[in-house]
Specification:
Helix content is about 55%, strand content about 5%. The chain is an alpha/beta fold. Helix 3 (about 80-90) packs across helix 10, helix 11 crosses helix 14 and helix 12 packs antiparallel against helix 13 (about 305-310). The longest helix has 17 residues, at about 45-60.
Length: about 375
Amino acid sequence: MSEHYQICKRCIMDTSDPDIVFDESGLCNHCKRYFEKEKRELYLDDAGQQRLEKLVATMKAKARDAEYDCIIGVSGGVDSTMVAYLAKKKLGLRPLAVHLDNGWNSELAVNNVERALKMLDIDLYTYVLDWEEFRDLQLSFLKASVTNCEIPTDHAINALLYRIASEKKISYILSGSNVLSEGIYLPPTWGYDAKDWKHIKAVHKRFGSIKLNTFPHINAGMFLYLTFIKGIKFIPLLNYFEYVKDEAKGLLERELGWRDYGGKHYESIYTRFYQAYILPRKFNIDKRRVHLSTLICSKQITREQALEALEEELYEPDKLVEDREFVIKKLGLTDDEFNGIMSQPIKSYRDYPSNYLFLKKWPFLLKWARNIATGRT
């Protein structure tokens, strides 16, 4: 370990993020930003609940004669399932569930989606990505040696939700993103913004070989049009509730027969392998630090419990062998080809074209647009 190693005295973010900043008390910039987000984006007081009541009333009134009044992206994970539960059971909304099938769903995730939506009587729309296109794009990001190999999936989900909302004239997308379990974002060095279509196109142009004819995407112009002209908003519904992860899991297990899948976003086989194998072995990144640090800040676990969790193995040996063989084969790689990708020098997202410099120069524009898009104004 480096002689300059340092870990935050409040959360467990450390110098594996090369851009981390500590104050004189040994507290890091990540947990400081968490508390800023908590003050700004949580709506748990009386005023926040009045805001939610007004929002729900508006959603229902706007779609009085329509089949659905909102859209929910579902993955089989706890956050999206909880959004579906709250929307239907607590708020009386009429959501359409939208699921992106990228070819990596675990059987458990599929069962969670089907079982929960059946119990809640929510219609499901599933979009299946063209596998050859998507495989080529995933391989492009692996070959690019950047830390965020999940950008293709995250971007496609976001674009698909906007597409369906626009086609069906639905103004509200209910999101599972939330402050209490996700308030600390990935450091830029760990994962660049998945919304940047310019970056995705650049990486694919450099390493890909198949045209992305059907891949759902959204560029800056489309985002502005859908947000300001069509009036589509992403609503982080969980920010209006005391969202405690373990309690939510227990509720969903009792009410919907939902089953836990392990780590965060482990409902996807590729995500599980990416987070538990590729990131720590190639990039020395343990994403659990971000998730556990958020739970420390929201007082759902103690710092000592988080440190103990970090000591647990990311993979059971047998499961690691099984997943590794499956992922390599499904991507159409040989073992030597995969090892070659893993041994390539690490690159930054800045090594490829993107909108980073523009957003860095005009950050208030991005903040303003996101506030409009998420209904915070």
